[in-house]
Amino acid sequence: MKTVLRKNIARPLVYSFLAGIMCLLAFTGCKKDGDTTLPQPKTFVFVHGAFQAPYAWQFVKARLEASGHKVVIVELPGHGQDQTPPASISINTYRDKVISTIKAINGPVVLVGHSLGGAIITAVADEIPSHIEKLVYLAGFVPADKQSIFDLTSMDPNSQFGPALTLSADGVLASIANDKIMGVFAQDGNEQVKKLLIDNNRPEPIAPQADKVFLKNPDFAQIPKYYIFTKQDHAITIDLQKKMVATAGIKNVFTVDSGHCPMLTKPDEVTADLIQIIN
């Protein structure tokens, strides 16, 4: 009797164990409808903002890759290690660099733009909407048709970005002093973030911010769009962010209680928002 009892108890345990192994080996077949805990891997393309470079996305990149996703970070011309002559750079120069990056990737991408990168991803998505699965703005500029970044910043009187700029004698470059850069971009950052910002600080080509973005492709409107607000932003204030989102009709919004660069100061929160967006 005892032996039979053990067999009767052990048998369902064995079956349960085998079922678990089979589910693990064929995950997609066992995954319940609506279960988003383990989303299918996506390819993210990140575009950084002004006075920054690919380093700005390093913490979010590491977290997304640890979750099984692919991440490509675009280095904009005139930023990071790129030595493109600043006078030759326009908003279309940035746009075309991102387009060439995306076209080298197999399949649609989740395109994410921070700050200046928001205007760039808007222009990119208008050119190649079929390559974009989702469009995500992180404290990004969202220009309407025939609107420039300068047009948008003129609507943001409380921004600390403009007053912190110093123009070069020829008007080609703008600079922000090291002692001002944290206050503008990451007042909530630690010493590591401060070092990253200062070590990578270089003059910014200013002409692209005066270039208007032209939206001509009706398919652009069909791309799902998302916005991540930065509540304590000193560069693009929350007031301007909300105005742009309302004008663009973006309904899917998230909020991080941070300064302008939460991908540096709160990468866990930014990553969590991106994971939720792809789900």
Structure commentary:
With 279 residues, this protein is of the alpha/beta class. Helices cover 41% and strands 15% of the residues. The chain is built from twelve helices and nine strands. The strands form two sheets. A six-stranded parallel β-sheet has the order 2-1-3-4-8-9, with helices on both faces. The chain has a three-stranded antiparallel β-sheet with strand order 5-6-7. The model is unreliable at 1-37 (pLDDT under 50).
**H/E order of the elements?**
HHEHEHEHEHHEEHHEEHEHH
Main sheet properties: 6 strands, parallel
Count of DSSP H/I helices: 12
Q: What's the Cα radius of gyration?
A: 23 Å
Helix/strand/pairing class, anyone? alpha/beta
Q: What is the spatial order of strands in the main beta sheet? A: 2-1-3-4-8-9
Indicate the low-confidence ranges by residue numbers: 1-37
Shape: globular
Residue-averaged pLDDT:
89
Number of strands: 9
How much of the polypeptide forms β-strand, as a percent range?
15-25%
N-end to C-end Cα span = 52 Å
- How much helicity do the residues have? 40-55%
Task: Describe the structure concisely.
This protein is of the alpha/beta class. It has helices at 2-25, 27-30, 58-66, 91-103, 116-127, 149-153, 161-164, 178-185, 191-199, 238-248, 262-265, 267-278, and strands at 43-47, 70-74, 109-114, 132-138, 165-167, 173-176, 204-205, 225-230, 252-256.
